[in-house]
Structure formats: C-alpha cells, structure tokens
Amino acid sequence: MIPSTASREKPGDPMAEVDHFSYGVLTPVLAYLMSVIGSLLGLLCTARARVSAGRARAAWLALAALAIGWTGIWVMHFIAMLGFSVGGAEIRYDVPRTILSCVIAVVVVAAGLFLVGFREAGRGAIVTGGVVMGIGVASMHYLGMAAMNMPGHIGYQPGLVAASVAIAVVAASAALLFALRVRGAWATAGAALIMGVAVTGMHYTGMAAMRVTMHHDMAPPTGATATDFLVPLIGAIGVVSIVLLAIVAMAPSEDEMRIEAELRERIQARREIRPPYPPYPPMPPTEPSRTRSPAEWFDG
C-alpha cells in the first residue's frame, strides 16, 4: 500500500509540528538494535537453509522470514513509532490494520526468500525477489502509517516516498544477496549491521515524507494507544527471539551440515558404483554323522 501523495488539507488549516524523536535517541537506537538482531537470526537460518533440501530448507526459510519480517522489520517499525508525536495531539492505532501490516512484513520476506531459495539463485532471481520484498516492506510501512488515527490528515512528499521505496528495494535485494552468499560469523554479523542501517534508513526516510495537517474540530481518535501494544509486544519479542535462538543453537552449524551432506552423497555414490556381491557357492552336501556302538568304542 503506497500512499497517495495528495494532501487533503483545507485552506487555513495549520500544519502540525511532527517530532520523530520524542524520547531522544532511545527509540532509534532500540529500533536499530531490533533490526540487527532480526537480521542476524534470519541470516543464521538462511545459512542452514543453503545446505538443506526439501522440507528442511522450507522450514529454515520460514524461520528466517519470521526473524527478518517480524523482528527485523515490523518490530523495528513499531519501536520507532513509539517516538513519533504530532504537536501534542492524541494518536491512536487501528488494531486490525496494525496486525495486517505485521503479517504483510513476514509474508513478503518469505516470498522473496522462497523465490531465491528454491530456484537458480542468479542475478535475475535476486532482483525479482528484491523488488517483491521491497515493495512489500514499503507497503507494510505505509499501511502502518495509515493505521494511525489523529485529529488531522496526513500527506506525503512524492520525492521522499519514492526514495523510501527505492531504499526498501535495495535493502531487500542486499538481504537476499547476503542470505545466499554470506558465510562465517564475522561476515554474517557485518551483513546484519548493514541490513539494520538499510531497514531503519528506509523507515525514517518514509517518516520524513509525512506532512500532517491538524483539524481540531474532528472527533477524538479511536483505537489503541501505542502503550497498549507494549506488553504484548515485549512478550512476543521475548518468546520469538528465545525460540529462534534455541533452534539455531541446538541445530548443527552450516559447516557441520555441509560436511554431513557431502558424506551422505559419497556414501550414496559408492553404493551406486560398487557391484553387488556375488552369491556364495553352494556348500557340498555332508553325510550325517554316524554314532559308534559300544563295541566300536572298546575295540570289539
């Protein structure tokens, strides 16, 4: 859902002062950290997906989509939104739209990962997957913005909207490239740091495009407040992160899985090449043993 850039303001309506950092650097730093953690967990899962096949690969890619889409993108977006305020106006959130934006984030990341994970991972697949993921992530962002209810109307600057979409496409393509090529602990950590910069950069570029026109004669906004999401959000972050960490920690590493796969291939190749053993020749018939009489034992 890319927003319309036409503002619905009326002549004489005051332009509101928008603050993206109501809590100082706290929200952007936390948002960046969550994006890095989600990206790191996702890359660890994609590393194991590379050396898996069939259902095992699909399972690892699904876990990667959950880590990147949920923790790395949507949670980052929501934490950053906690620092958003508009001239002291009350802001509430439409719960169904907010949840839908979360689902979109996970689904589009899964679409991109499965696109490159189950076909030839060439440049075309990465670009196609990056475009799908990037447009989907941008849609998630602007749908989340549309979920805000306030006594005013929101407009967007076209240039910054286009820039945010372009950043999302580039970030998604880089994420897919990292998922396919990055190996090793340090390289994976570095890739996660870069992905965190790209994702948070896309978010704040999209936020900079926003223009709010206040209408104080409008009815008070309805919906949930940002703090209403905090307790379930913190609980969900903890559960998802702990489960993903436990799965990754208990699973073999990428190198161990690769060695095991190579060993299986060698065993299978030897079984196919080695000729079957010839059947054993039949044993000659043997005469049944005869029992001696007492006279034979004592020489008659």
Distance between the termini: 112 Å
Largest sheet: 2 strands, antiparallel
> What is the averaged pLDDT score?
81
Strand content: 5-15%
Please tell me the total number of domains. Answer: 1
Helix content: 55-70%
Oligomer: single chain
According to DSSP, the number of beta strands is 6
Order of helices and strands: EHHEEHHEEHHEHHH
Helix count from the secondary structure assignment: 9
Short description:
With 300 residues, the chain is mostly helical. The chain has helices at residues 26-50, 54-82, 95-117, 123-146, 158-181, 185-208, 230-250, 254-273, 294-297, and strands at residues 18-19, 85-86, 92-93, 148-149, 152-156, 210-214.
Notes on the structure:
The structure is a single chain. Helix content is 65%, strand content 6%. With 300 residues, the protein is mostly helical. It has one domain (18-263). A two-stranded antiparallel ribbon has the order 1-2. Helix 1 (26-50) packs parallel to helix 5, helix 2 packs antiparallel against helix 7 and helix 3 packs across helix 5. The chain is elongated and about 125 Å long.
Which features does this protein show?
6 strands; mainly alpha; about 65% helix
